[in-house]
Amino acid sequence: MKVKVSRKANFNAAHRLHRPDWDEQKNQAIFGKCNNPRYHGHNYDLIVSITGEIDQETGFVMDLKVLKDLIKEHVEEALDHKNLNADVPEFKELNPTAENIAVVIWNKLRPYIDQANELEVVLYETPRNFVTYSG
Ligand SMILES: Nc1nc2c(c(=O)[nH]1)N=C([C@H](O)[C@H](O)COP(=O)(O)OP(=O)(O)OP(=O)(O)O)CN2
Ligand SMILES: [Zn+2]
């Protein structure tokens, strides 16, 4: 019997969607206001979920206090109040779209999650735009 447990988190970050190999007109046409050369911010909401068997001794799939601390150490400290393009090595040459940010977060957390459990990351870039990555 598998059960999914989840932890919500939040971080604020600035970004710019841009490809240096495209001219200004194409960047503007594809990325619109997220191509602003002065960057802009989003208030990202994150839901991290772990799916697995319930441990018969603890009753936990995973201790949510441990998950909270992992998100704080590996996601919030890396991304919160950062300029994603300029401050976060993973985005030096990777566009910080919601999709790519979700994959980066998943990769940061996966090494710390029990191999027997599944990891899912849901990232809200705006209240109505969100992406899901499960590996
Ligand atoms: N597939 C993707 N599409 C878009 C992304 C993305 O990361 N992946 N990002 C953006 C913008 O960065 C950002 O999400 C703003 O988009 P917008 O359409 O303005 O969304 P809002 O929810 O703020 O707008 P509403 O009008 O309130 O719906 C765009 N596309
Ligand atoms: Zn944006």
From TrEMBL:
Reactions catalysed according to its record: 7,8-dihydroneopterin 3'-triphosphate + H2O = 6-carboxy-5,6,7,8-tetrahydropterin + triphosphate + acetaldehyde + 2 H(+)
GO terms of biological process kind: tRNA queuosine(34) biosynthetic process
Keywords linked to the UniProt accession: Lyase, Metal-binding, Queuosine biosynthesis, Zinc
Cofactor binding comment, as recorded: Binds 1 zinc ion per subunit.
Positions of Zn(2+) binding: H15, H40, H42
EC number annotated for this UniProt entry: 4.-.-.-
Single GO term (MF): 6-carboxytetrahydropterin synthase activity
Cofactor(s) required for function per UniProt: Zn(2+)
Active site, renumbered: C34, H81, E125
Top enzyme category: lyase
Annotated family: Belongs to the PTPS family. QueD subfamily.
Protein name: 6-carboxy-5,6,7,8-tetrahydropterin synthase
